[in-house]
IclR family transcriptional regulator (Sagittula stellata), 264 residues
Amino acid sequence: MEIRMSDTPEPRRTRTSGIDRALQILDILTERHAPMTGYELAKASGAPPSTVYKVVDELIERAMLSRTSDERVWLGPRLMRYGLTYRARMNAFGEAERAMFALNERVREMVQICARDEGMMQVVAMAEGSAGPFRVTSDVGTRVPLNWTASGRLLVGHLPDAKRLEVFRACARPSSTGLAETDPVRLSDISRKDFLDGLSVQIDTSEDQVACIAAPIRDFDGECRLTLSVVMPKHRVEEKFEMVAREVRTAARDVEKALGLRHG
């Protein structure tokens, strides 16, 4: 008798990982909007009750879940901290974008919101200026080494000394103008000073005849996740520096206040 083997391999049995099971339980509770018993969670997830009980106990120990007075399982207080942090980050961009457009109207120069992407500074939003003809090569999505711009220095200014030094040693590169500081020690010192001052200025380092005047936007932990940066022609800096520096600082602080942040 001829036995023919199927060309289609049998489906491999997969084992649900502990983290997937934990996420499944969190998802079920979130979708049901109500505390549940361990048995109900097991039934809803299709997992063995013993497995669900074990995962639930571990999540309760870590405050990811909690028990109600009637011994049902509900979301834990630790999740609130994660949610608030995430919401603050999302709200921060929305508030920063509103501040960007308002600042743009007041100073009539280009304003950018910048963020850190590893060893690079990235432009994540931009409003064009109206003070006169002015073009720069940077646009939304542009990435340049942290040491090239005022925003780049601010975005690591909150880090501990050793970490700042490590970052600049890894990412500092000469700019096309040849004027960007590349010494990691000096960059680390300037970065910290600018962050504490709440203002950073660079001229001609990223592009010829271009100035950047930036202020940090700090989060709940005092870390700089975003910056507001006024980008303008070098020849207008002397005339407008005091006003622009005051306005960009104020705009950044207003974003923090709108988020309910208070820093000493």
